[in-house]
Amino acid sequence: MKTWKGVREYGALKVSGTTLIGSSGEAVMLDGMSSHGIQWYSKFARKKSIEMTKKAGANVFRVAMYTGEGGYLTNPKIAEDVIRAVDDALSLDMYAIIDWHILTDNDPLSNAGKAEAFFAGMSRRYGNEPGVLYEICNEPNGPGVTWTSCVKPYAERLIPVIRANTDAVILVGCPNWSQDVDIAAADPLDFDNIMYTLHFYAGTHGEKLRDKCRRAISSGAPVFASEWGVSRANGTGGVFTKESDAWLDFLDRYNISRCNWNLSDKDETSAALLPGSPEGWGEKHLSLSGRYVFARMSCRPFEIVPKNNDSHFQGPM
Ligand code: IDC
């Protein structure tokens, strides 16, 4: 079991080759949770809840700020919730990812101006803060939303806006719901300290997607799995623990950092908490997904064991 390390020990992160390194040059593993959409589940993006993820081994918290579906585009005040969650994670010595969570607004270019203003503000606020990473577009998707015509030009607009304030690591989504890392890798961005995001759901994606990732890495592209789930890609079904084992072993082999979807109590199998869980949740509130995910955290401080009645739980213990 590895030792838990947060911002105080790792310091400001850099990308070296295909890996994240800390300020002393050591390889870094960020392993943690993503919030659900904070327009719905902000309760679990509050301090007590984030602190529980730390107690269970997480050293990073991803703040998923949806742009659509009642998120930032129609309710820009939600940025205040992002700031509060980021401040809370930082105060716990954890890294925080600010995620511009595009989804139904398929093409990141369609709201690029708003994204520029948002990230200008966030990077100005956190410019001297070693614990913040910027994820500029969750999942570009839809017909015609290609790397060359949409995502790369968007990244080329956004990255300089953030770079005006900080050299922090920037995570760039890839077309096809952040699966086409190989396509991005074949036509890479010309900036330092950027990584391409790979998203996978163990009940839907397998060896074919891992092959795309291998191709990206072998051509020198750094990859960050900023969203993965034990369910199917629609957030339900499973939980697929054996398939998740194969994925996490793969990520471990390449030292790929990751955030699990999702820290909420929604009645869906990808949610780590049981419906009705409080903000200050504990082990007894973990769903099958949550039990599995926290049991597999890279540096968990305690063992989570399956309960007797978890007959279909196939955790790694
Ligand atoms: C899902 C949520 C679900 C919600 C839906 C639409 O789990 O409760 O109704 O979004 O907002 C993604 C997305 C992520 C999805 C997740 C599971 O980034 O927002 O969350 N998923 O479907 N990409 C692949 C899967």
Task: Walk me through what this model shows.
By secondary structure, the chain is α/β, with parallel strands linked by helices. The chain has a single domain, classed as TIM Barrel (Alpha-Beta Barrel), CATH 3.20.20.80. 33% of the residues lie in helices and 17% in strands. The chain contains 11 helices and 10 strands. The two termini are 13 Å apart. The structure holds ligand IDC. Ligand IDC binds next to strand 8 and strand 10.
CATH class: Alpha Beta
Under the CATH scheme, the architecture is Alpha-Beta Barrel
Number of domains: 1
Average per-residue pLDDT, rounded, comes to 94
Helix content: 25-40%
Gyration radius, in Å:
18 Å
- What class would the helix/strand composition place it in? alpha/beta
What letter string, H or E per element, gives the SSE order? HEEEHHEHEHEHEHHEHEHEH
CATH topology, which one? TIM Barrel
Secondary structure elements and pairings:
Elements: H1 7-10, E1 14-16, E2 19-21, E3 31-35, H2 38-41, H3 47-55, E4 60-66, H4 78-91, E5 95-101, H5 112-126, E6 132-135, H6 147-163, E7 170-172, H7 175-178, H8 181-186, E8 194-201, H9 207-218, E9 223-229, H10 241-253, E10 258-263, H11 288-295
Parallel strand pairs: 3-4, 3-10, 4-5, 5-6, 6-7, 7-8, 8-9, 9-10
Antiparallel strand pairs: 1-2
The structure holds ligand IDC.
